[in-house]
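Agenda item 2: adenosine-5'-diphosphate complex prediction
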Amino acid sequence: MQRVRLLVFNAALGVLDYRVPEGMTIEFGSIVIAPLGPRQVLGIVWEPERLNAQEVPESKLRPLLGVMPAPPLSERLRRLIEWTADYYCAPLSSVARMALGSMSALRGGGTTTEYRLTGEEPARLTPQRAAALDALQGEQGAIRELAELASVSEGVLRGMVGAGLLEAVTVDLDRPYPPARPEFAEPKLNDIQQDAADIFVEAVKAKKFAPFLLDGVTGSGKTECYFEAVAEAIRMERQVLVLLPEIALTENFLRRFEHRFGVPPVLWHSSLKSSERRRAWRAVSLGAAKVIVGARSALFLPYANLGLIVVDEAHEISFKQDDGVRYNARDVAVMRAKFEGIPIVLASATPALESMQLAEAGVYRKIDLPSRFGGATLPAINILDLREEAPERGRWIAPRLVEAMKDRLAKGEQSLLFLNRRGYAPLTLCRNCGYRFQCPNCTAWLVEHRFSKRLACHHCGHETPVPEACPDCGTGDCLVACGPGVERIADEVAEILPEARTALVTSDTMKTPAAIGEFVAMAENKAIDVIIGTQLVTKGYHFPDLTLVGVVDADLGLEGGDLRAGERTYQQIAQVAGRAGRGEKPGEVLIQTRHPEAAVIAALANGDRDAFYAAETEARRDAGAPPFGRWAAIIVSSEDQAEALSAARAIGGTAPNLPDMLVLGPAPAPLSLLRGRHRFRLLINARRSAELQKTLREWLDPLEFPRGVRVNIDIDPYSFV
Ligand code: ADP
Ligand code: ZN
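Presented output:
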């Protein structure tokens, strides 16, 4: 090959041609370094006929500078990258970047220096050194990472190296991961589980694209079933990717995996240390890492030999990424399985309506696990009508739920209270003048967090200490908290059950895998009586002595009123209800609501899932909503409101007039100010037959906007704010 076309990592340039110097061997997919003006860029060698570029004469081509010592991206992965960019109207280089994961990994193997405690304990220590000694027990990493972990400066740690408290160790970046052992602890499956597992195992052996929807009630043993397919893939020396919706669930998964296979899986997520990232990426690309568990971003890694994909809790909306490349990892995972020619299992107790529809249409094969494992029964679900059984003034937990919690505490059983709202109170105002605390950057109230004594914006992260006096009228001691968040519910539990041991589980309290691990261990060892949590605690966990689930406010999720509000509420409550009565003792669920007549609440109470899905399906069909029609959003934003509006109007004004596409808007977004940017939205509702992406490109590509304007396209949007 003389001349090559590169996909370069620079969204503005995209595609450039180069010359291959004498003696350099490359192939399609090779990751190379190329000159760009006085600088260097990274690029991927691509099939020239698949990328448009300006034709440059042979004589003007500059030579490539080098090839990275990493395996070339496979053709299957290149096709997936193209498909994703095309489908989600995203720059190819932004999608391809997700495959590279870590710059340092591309530099190849080798060794690195890490540090760990020597075990030396001098008699006298500065407070900082003492703190570091405490924090770094059992840790090993680069100085920078350890400094962050111990919250001390790097200088302190370097001093400790000098004093012999820390020692350097040389670490081989390519040291192998201990192999998972498929025979380590094989479970005895019941007949239904065995049938499901056999089907998955056969599919792994067949090495063909085969999408499955594993629809099993909470506690039916979905994990045990797909673990058999994982075991088969390991026996065949192929790789497995397990996608989880959030990092918080990996800790729990890890424990179960280790239990079954004798070793932990290889993790991939955003909070890995850079050396871990580098090691994992290399092992993935060389085929040495067999089972990889990760969040969305693990989807685009360059697996050498992928044999199976599992998407657990496949209904979760957090698989949809809402910034950067706005893709849905569940859907792209199915495409990856297709390009790789392998089976994929979407597992859920409450499948997304879209997935159900695809199963009904025969695209996915549906495998059912209709009952809980080991004779456990599904919990009884009861409605608590807040209009008739109101909590005491200033309280949020109704007397019947209080009694039920007292009863569980007396019996030594556990309760779980679910409220999907972080912080103490969603709104703080001044009793004297009515002043409300609002985020300066967003159309949102600031949420009070009592633990950190701060008011915080949940959209942009803006934080300010809770003031002593009202910033508007100056009155002291006049702020009132309106409405409950989980912290407030935890306070209430401490008042009604002072002797109960409680755990607050939110993204504010469970920031690290270690914190989550500690919580799970305590709950399993019955060192916790009452768990109070957000959606973080609704899925994945198995605490046999948890027999009561209280839903503090079932109406909360219905307020927004977007397309999926009903479905999401159903899923969330069904999932959290699924935490109750998973062991020998039966479970009970109390749902606090002001709208017992709402279709989703009634369906939950009657356990009538089919009727709920049927009604939702009809409503979507009538509205031409997904999966029967398609949606796309165009979000226009700028720091300058007038500029954003005029750009949005320009888009609206040039909207194509097509029989199978309806363009709504522009209208101010519900979150009309976000991170200091003014936002307008257009919503496109298209028939399935419409060429949505092509139309969008032809419509938007010719338009030009001022530099400060951002136009984002969101295909199949989940967020409507
Ligand atoms: P799901 O993911 O469907 O909610 P899990 O896979 O978490 O269900 O299973 C629920 C519990 O039952 C887990 O503790 C699991 O280990 C246990 N379990 C399920 N199937 C078996 C089996 N065949 N043998 C032993 N334990 C099982
Ligand atoms: Zn904000």
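Discussion summary: The chain has a mean pLDDT of 93.
Owner for follow-up: CH.
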